[in-house]
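Issue 218. Parser rejects a valid record. Input:
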Amino acid sequence: MKTMAATDVKKVYKLVLTGGPCGGKTTGQARMCTFFENLGWKVFRVPETATVLLSGGIKFSDLTTDEAYKFQENLLRTMIQIENTFFELGKSCTRNCLIICDRGVMDASAFVSKEKWERMMKTNNWNSVELRDNRYNHIVHMVSAANGAEAFYSTEDHACRSEGVDLARELDYKSAAAWIGHPYFDVIDNSTDFENKMNRMIECVCQKLGIDTGDRLLTTSKKVKFLVSELPPDSTFPAFQDFDVVHHYLQSAGPRVQARLRKRGQNGHFSYIHTIRRPHLHGQSIEVKTQLTHRDYLNMLTQRDDAHFTIYKKRRCFLVNNQYFQMDIYKEPGHPRCKGLIFLETYTSLTGDKLKGILPKFLKIVKEVTGHPDYSMFNLSLKEDWSNTKKFCYSLHDQDEGDFRAKGRSHKMINGKA
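Output the parser choked on:
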């Protein structure tokens, strides 16, 4: 089995498996390790730092407030150093390398107050964008069995686990909330049996890497997209993270390839991603994403495609009932067709009324626009009028270009502008 990306470029993929108690992290690590080793990858498993330290006899109940704070700070320093050791090994490895971290640095923020976390960041010259967004490629949250599979929740056979169901649910939510805002964050809930939960976990990682799993794993979630009519007050949202996002389209190798750069960040700290998108590959849309340094980003900006406007957005990320959403609010400057546009996106296997049932009730959703070319960022950013340009991309996801040509364009659907 080969990846969709160029096979001569070695990958080092840093994955965090997180979640509440009894969520399947330990089993998931083992399954993930076996799956990727069978693909020929080298797999490293970074142990959970908290478990290593707590197994040495430390009890939070015995610590003073100051001792607990220093413990969390030293735990974080230790975790960073342990992870860095594996990250360095990954760089020197001659094969594709998957590094699975049993929890990551942001998990520590779930166990201290916001004020203490900010003090810890300042004292150690850390910032959340670097620790959350730039340090790891992908975060997968395994929902605790205490949330949706209570009959299977157990504290047996785990020396450091003593949480009851209610506390486990609370810890599960805090663990997920700590990672809200990471650009590649997946939540694996308990909507299926445990075996399928494991398959969904592996599949979501393969999707991000562009690995074709064939029929080895069950087909599950896909990205769905909705048009939202207006932005409600911040007070109506659950805990959220806002980011400034800038997209530049680049000159590409051919008409069936889209290349773009993304700059994303908060408070002056940014991460950078290069995306190659092939809307027509094997009847589906394939994206391969590469994390960039700031220098690489600046160098690649010289390849900007003058046929496209730069896209500016505010991106809001939040959780509702274990479902992870991101909302893109288009900002000026840009083409008039983009003015006032708001899109909601999530990954799910649900359809129809079940899909509608998971959507945030506080948002006024106009309609689903998944796969519709009039709502693709590529087409929205085109400088030319859609009725005159040859660059308009008709085919997204599984849609056939001929179908759209035969039906004609419905470009008046976006704010009455084409």
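Fixed in the parser; the record now loads. The radius of gyration is 22 Å.
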